[in-house]
Amino acid sequence: MKAGIVGIRKHVMGKAGGLSPAYQGLLLVAVVLCALSVVTSQHKARKLFIELQKEKEQAQKMDVEWGQLQLEQSTWATPARVEQVAVQKLQMQLPRNGQVQFIKVKPNGGAKPLQ
């Protein structure tokens, strides 16, 4: 059994005790391919990281804009502003006492004005 292993070792190692040129070439190709794949994957990872940072920055800008829009909406919707627009632009006015009617709704769907 030991002789078989020694024979295989001699075949792989060649005459000078090192690897045969065919195996050396194969290993060199394998190492170069591995190195190229590492460089390629690192380049892709860097590109993806840069894209992620840009997207995070865009999301932060959108959050700021959302807050500004909410503030603007609350400013435009204040009761005093709504009343001012109703009076000035729409010529609306508050009803007088005689102009207001209350309606009582019956459970069966009928309605009758109260006096």
Quick summary:
The chain is mainly α and 115 residues long.
Report on the architecture of this protein.
The protein has 115 residues and is mainly alpha-helical. Helices cover 68% and strands 5% of the residues. It has a two-stranded antiparallel ribbon. The radius of gyration is 42 Å and the shape is rod-shaped. The termini are far apart. The mean pLDDT is 85.
How many E-type strands?
A: 2
Helix content: 55-70%
The neighbouring-strand order within the major sheet is 1-2
- Specify the overall morphology: rod-shaped
Distance between the termini: 117 Å
Secondary structure category: mainly alpha
Radius of gyration: 42 Å
The helix tally amounts to 3
**Helices and strands, in N-to-C order?**
HHHEE
Give start-end ranges of low-pLDDT stretches. none
Largest sheet, in brief, is:
2 strands, antiparallel
Output mean pLDDT.
85
Strand content: 5-15%
Key phrases:
single chain; about 120 residues; mainly alpha; 3 helices; 2 strands; about 70% helix
Summarize the helices and strands and which ones pair or pack.
Elements: H1 2-13, H2 21-76, H3 79-88, E1 103-105, E2 111-113
Antiparallel strand pairs: 1-2
